[in-house]
Write a structure and sequence with these properties.
Strand order of the largest sheet: 1-2
Order of helices and strands: HEEHHHEHHEHHHH
Largest sheet: 2 strands, antiparallel
Shape: globular
Structural class: mainly alpha
Distance between the termini: 36 Å
Number of strands: 4
Length: 205
Amino acid sequence: MTLRRVIDLAGATICLLIVCPVMLFTIVAIYLTDGGPILFLQQRSGLRGRPFLIYKFRSMKANNLPCDDVTEIRSGHPLVTPVGSLIRRYKIDELPQLVNVLKGEMSLIGPRPTVPEQVDGFSPFEWRRQEILPGLTGWAQINGGIDITWPERIKLDVWYVDHRSAWLDISILLRTITVLLWGDRPNPEKLAEAEIHAINQPGTS
């Protein structure tokens, strides 16, 4: 077992203990206000493209949206429930993924897992984000998240894959707290750095 895996196990266990009251409150709130299933389950692509089932608190009404659309829901969408809007704003809907971390399907830090349909169309450069386990939070999430484009996120993810370290992971964890408090904010400096890193990389689109 690697040191990173030990840290993931310990970190996910501690986080689950800390956020357990929040998760219980969320379960009750979803059930009382909207009924239906508490969890949203979806297949995502993990390490080297291996599929796994991701767990999220359900934040939307039942729908038939394509998978790609479900991963790009923004605030104010008519299908997002009132409770869903709140838990999405503070990323509470992602907390069940701590179980994915315990199962070894995800890490605390890494590129966010996306749907197989998108991964199937990746260029060799884009595929490099699949070289490590997907994460609960990552370099792209603290430098813009949903407020930047997918190509920008992928370049940030590849930059992380090439530069990741224990200190960088600690920085990401700490800065994730500011994202939870203040929301997603694009970081032009880091976006430019990732763009420069991507230039002349094999398979860059």
